[in-house]
Amino acid sequence: MQKSSVYAYLRKSTDDQNTKAQELAVRQYTDREDLRVDQWFDVECSSRRSTKERRID
Asked: What's the CA gap between 27 and 35, in Å, rounded?
Protein backbone atom coordinates (compact mmCIF):
# COMPACT_ATOMS: atom_id res chain seq x y z
CA MET A 1 0.00 0.00 0.00
CA GLN A 2 1.34 3.42 -0.98
CA LYS A 3 1.62 5.96 1.82
CA SER A 4 0.09 9.40 1.46
CA SER A 5 2.23 12.51 1.28
CA VAL A 6 2.76 14.27 4.59
CA TYR A 7 3.13 18.03 4.87
CA ALA A 8 4.04 19.79 8.11
CA TYR A 9 2.73 23.32 8.64
CA LEU A 10 4.44 25.36 11.36
CA ARG A 11 3.11 28.85 12.07
CA LYS A 12 4.24 31.78 14.16
CA SER A 13 2.57 35.17 14.45
CA THR A 14 5.50 37.41 15.36
CA ASP A 15 9.29 37.56 15.23
CA ASP A 16 9.29 37.00 19.01
CA GLN A 17 7.84 33.50 18.58
CA ASN A 18 9.46 30.37 17.18
CA THR A 19 8.23 27.06 15.86
CA LYS A 20 10.61 24.73 17.74
CA ALA A 21 7.90 23.25 20.02
CA GLN A 22 5.58 22.71 17.03
CA GLU A 23 8.37 21.03 15.07
CA LEU A 24 9.18 18.74 18.00
CA ALA A 25 5.52 17.73 18.36
CA VAL A 26 5.24 16.97 14.64
CA ARG A 27 8.48 14.94 14.68
CA GLN A 28 7.32 12.94 17.71
CA TYR A 29 3.98 12.21 16.06
CA THR A 30 5.46 11.21 12.70
CA ASP A 31 8.05 8.99 14.40
CA ARG A 32 5.36 7.30 16.50
CA GLU A 33 3.13 6.74 13.45
CA ASP A 34 6.04 5.71 11.18
CA LEU A 35 5.46 8.64 8.81
CA ARG A 36 7.93 10.74 6.85
CA VAL A 37 7.36 14.46 6.32
CA ASP A 38 7.70 15.17 2.60
CA GLN A 39 7.68 18.94 2.91
CA TRP A 40 7.89 21.44 5.77
CA PHE A 41 6.17 24.84 5.71
CA ASP A 42 7.45 27.33 8.29
CA VAL A 43 5.25 30.41 8.04
CA GLU A 44 5.16 33.74 9.83
CA CYS A 45 1.66 35.11 9.53
CA SER A 46 -0.52 37.24 11.75
CA SER A 47 -4.24 36.57 11.92
CA ARG A 48 -4.66 40.36 11.79
CA ARG A 49 -3.77 40.25 8.10
CA SER A 50 -6.45 39.75 5.49
CA THR A 51 -6.99 36.25 4.13
CA LYS A 52 -5.42 37.38 0.85
CA GLU A 53 -2.24 38.45 2.69
CA ARG A 54 -2.13 35.12 4.58
CA ARG A 55 -1.82 32.95 1.48
CA ILE A 56 0.99 30.42 1.32
CA ASP A 57 2.84 30.64 -1.97
From this structure: 9
